[in-house]
């Protein structure tokens, strides 16, 4: 079956309609321009250049509030790795969320945002001595230990009473891409529950006079759609709490809540999650006769993904024998997710509708796999100079961006109520040259 058979809009003149759920809240069409956070995309591209990552502040804050509202009894911890940026961390602090960081570098951004140390959790399967020292120096409230080596190292570095959480691999399959499935056995994250390593880790932490065990942590993966995977995780983790014979005050269930990337995909069922996890936790704790721990959740993608839109300028169109390639001024350096996980995106041309045709949107980098979106439809007359907008690019884009081919990383522009301002500036040649000696 061809794409044209699957998508009847191909070959037809279409009225532009915005795909539901993919774009920042309040995004609208004004003629054929796209208005994000009250600012036309054409104006953003003219003012800040392309590629440009646009971030709608209201959407970020609204998603953060939705977590707090759905889970009033829980501590909601923003996964700082999903969008590392002091201004975004400030929004999270103001909304009352906590923050997780995975390195001294992410902690430096948190410090720049004056994020309260009492609400910071540090993660990472590898924390170097520098990471641990930076966490201790800032007084990060909890450090999630991930190996026996780290327990010993932290025990030696910490002063009395450093709060520690043990990362557990619960053996739960979250049915997501293998590269982002972190809850299953046989992998680098955490201590295996099934092998007994998790129990051993709990006992080792308790033996360290400078450490105070406060909780258990797990993170079963990212882009998880099924609440049932979290219920099963709760069941297993409470089993461990009951078996370890130590008072566990906190149960951190990690993040991973899915976000929609393509038309027709739904958002995470947050209300269903809150209800079912609460019921499962209370039930399991009652059965095992252990006190109910305070739950922590660590959403990243579900808070920021759909707040982001990336704008690209078309630089060349090649009409091949079987496909039309639309080449843009960005690519795998600002969005490596298609190459890493086969991630798929929707693409929209800003400024024109008309008869649609299937195209493959590719980047500017020296890899044949530098494909941003295959089998998408754009106006058949797409040409150099056109402006493209890609929704759902707020999470793990700025975070994963590289300098491949010595292309400077794009800016992040926050939009809010009709105003736009830089929160991360574009990387310049001077920035690139500064590192070379
Ligand atoms: C420990 C931990 N918590 C939270 C997250 C956030 O996941 P997501 O952005 O899918 O919600 C991650 C992502 O890798 C993680 O490793």
Automatic annotation (TrEMBL):
Positions bound to pyridoxal 5'-phosphate: 256, 298-301, 396
Keywords, sorted A to Z: Amino-acid biosynthesis, Decarboxylase, Lyase, Lysine biosynthesis, Pyridoxal phosphate
Q: What class of enzyme is it?
A: lyase
Q: Where is the active site?
A: 366 (proton donor)
Residue positions where N6-(pyridoxal phosphate)lysine is found in the record: 81
Q: In which pathway does it act?
A: Amino-acid biosynthesis; L-lysine biosynthesis via DAP pathway; L-lysine from DL-2,6-diaminopimelate: step 1/1
Assigned EC number? 4.1.1.20
As cofactor, the record names: pyridoxal 5'-phosphate
Q: Which GO terms describe its molecular function?
A: diaminopimelate decarboxylase activity; pyridoxal phosphate binding
Residues annotated for substrate binding in this entry: 301, 337, 341, 367, 396
Please give the InterPro entries that the UniProt record associates with this protein: Ala_racemase/Decarboxylase_C, DAP_deCOOHase_LysA, De-COase2_N, Orn/DAP/Arg_de-COase, PLP-binding_barrel
4Fe-4S as a keyword of this entry, yes or no, is no
Reactions that this protein is recorded to catalyse: meso-2,6-diaminopimelate + H(+) = L-lysine + CO2
Domain Orn/DAP/Arg decarboxylase 2 N-terminal residues, every copy: 59-305
Q: Which SUPFAM superfamilies match?
A: Alanine racemase C-terminal domain-like, PLP-binding barrel
Q: Name one GO biological process term.
A: lysine biosynthetic process via diaminopimelate
| Function comment | Specifically catalyzes the decarboxylation of meso-diaminopimelate (meso-DAP) to L-lysine.
Oligomeric state and interaction partners are given as: Homodimer.
Query: What family is this protein classified in?
Result: Belongs to the Orn/Lys/Arg decarboxylase class-II family. LysA subfamily.
What is the protein's given name? Answer: Diaminopimelate decarboxylase
Tell me the name of the encoding gene: lysA
């Amino acid at each position: 079956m061809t794409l044209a058979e699957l998508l009847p809009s191909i070959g037809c003149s279409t009225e532009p309609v915005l795909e539901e759920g993919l774009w920042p809240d309040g995004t609208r069409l004004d003629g054929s321009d796209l208005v994000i956070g009250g600012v036309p995309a054409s104006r953003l591209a003219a003012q800040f250049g392309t590629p440009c990552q646009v971030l709608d502040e209201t959407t970020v804050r609204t998603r953060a509030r939705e977590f707090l509202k759905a889970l009033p009894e829980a501590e909601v911890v923003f996964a700082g790795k999903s969008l590392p940026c002091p201004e975004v961390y400030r929004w999270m602090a103001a909304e009352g969320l906590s923050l997780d960081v995975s390195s001294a570098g992410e902690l430096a951004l948190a410090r720049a945002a004056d994020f309260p140390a009492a609400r910071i959790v540090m993660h990472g399967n590898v924390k170097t001595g520098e990471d641990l020292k930076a966490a201790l120096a800032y007084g990060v409230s909890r450090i999630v230990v991930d190996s026996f080596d780290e327990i010993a190292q932290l025990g030696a570095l910490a002063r009395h009473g450093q709060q520690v959480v043990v990362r557990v691999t619960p053996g739960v399959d979250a049915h997501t891409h293998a590269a982002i499935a972190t809850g299953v056995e046989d992998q680098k994250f955490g201590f295996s529950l099934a092998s007994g390593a998790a129990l051993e880790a709990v006992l080792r932490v308790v033996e360290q006079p400078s450490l105070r065990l406060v909780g258990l942590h797990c993170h079963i993966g990212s882009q998880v759609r099924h609440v049932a995977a979290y219920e099963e995780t709760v069941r297993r983790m409470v089993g461990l709490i009951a078996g370890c014979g130590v008072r566990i005050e906190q149960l951190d269930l990690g993040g991973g809540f899915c976000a929609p990337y393509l038309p027709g995909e739904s958002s995470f069922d947050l209300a269903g999650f809150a209800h079912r996890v609460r019921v499962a936790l209370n039930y399991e704790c009652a059965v095992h006769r252990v006190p109910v721990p305070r739950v922590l959740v660590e959403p990243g993608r579900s808070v920021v993904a759909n707040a982001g839109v990336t704008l690209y300028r078309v630089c060349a169109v090649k009409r091949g024998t079987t496909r039309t390639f639309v080449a843009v001024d960005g690519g795998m350096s600002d969005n490596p997710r298609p190459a890493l996980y086969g991630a798929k995106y929707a693409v929209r041309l800003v400024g024109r509708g008309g008869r649609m045709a299937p195209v493959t949107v590719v980047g500017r980098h020296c890899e044949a796999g530098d494909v941003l979106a295959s089998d998408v439809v754009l106006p058949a007359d797409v040409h150099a100079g056109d402006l493209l907008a890609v929704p759902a690019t707020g999470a793990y884009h700025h975070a994963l961006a590289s300098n491949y081919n010595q292309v400077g990383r794009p800016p992040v522009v926050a939009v809010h109520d009709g105003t736009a301002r830089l929160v991360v500036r574009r990387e310049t040649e001077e920035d690139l040259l500064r590192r070379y000696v």
